[in-house]
Amino acid sequence: TMLFCHNILNISCVKSNWSNDIRASLYSLMVLIILTTLVGNLIVIISISHFKQLHTPTNWLIHSMATVDFLLGCLVMPYSMVRSVEHHWYFGEVFCKIHTSTDIMLSSASIFHLSFISIDRYCAVCDPLRYKARINILVIFVMIFVSWSVPAIYAFGMVFLELNLKGAEEMYYKHVHCIGGCTVFFSKISGVVAFMTSFYVPGSIMLCVYYRIYFIANGQARSINDMNQKLHIGLKEKHGISQSKERKAAKTLGIVVGVFLICWCPFFVCTVMDPFLDYTIPPTLNDALIWSGYLNSTFNPMVYAFFYPWFRKALKMILSGKIFQKDSSMCKLFLESNP
Question: Could you provide one GO biological process annotation from this protein's UniProt record (predicted)?
Fold first, then answer.
């Protein structure tokens, strides 16, 4: 039997008719994703805020991205969870627009941060001598400002001015719009714009930058090896450290790019294709792909936890309560000049 969200049947959305067991399983899985996202990103925020040694320009960029991902887990995912499981929006039409705008804004802001972090790492690996002069706190502040403001203007402007419906208004109001629903609808034009702004441009920057870092880091490693073989001097160990650092930076960024592509690519490809396929992609699949995108915010702190020893040390201090001790903020988390 069909369950409707509203008593006027011809304008009402259809509620989900899943059994209680399926609902309970979905709620459990989504609550786990939300809690993992909140805890992981909160640990990054606390670590970078608390420990003085982590107050570097790069880390403020990571801190800002963790804040975006934390807010996504806090303000967006819980409402999306209810909508995904119940196929019904309980929170009113105005809040639907606010939720949709915030969702698009924070998801895009997270992606923007990732592309700026890849640019920052590119400068660190490929031009280490001029890195500190080029990437100072002001440059990082501009990156953070752009990462927040551009997605905010784009998301809220598009949803509240209904630019996402442009060219497909009739189709939307006749066949898609219903009472009790809250779906993100894109026309052909707005779907392409969303794909370009939130995925293709930042994603391409990340891929190109990673490609360059990979080859430069490999080239540097080879030239250091050659030099070591020629010199046979005690500098070998020092070069080995910088060589492994560069390789680690390339590897970390590679994983970040890979996770980003796996999480977001299916959603954005479907978003851009759906209007051209006459909206034949089922809403349940679309929902699953949105959650796949959310997982990117869940995985981001895990990548850092896995690759950065300072993160693991900070995590131990937070969990053991040592950060409440006097002068714990001055604790040394790593030996090199850069994390």
Answer: phospholipase C-activating G protein-coupled receptor signaling pathway
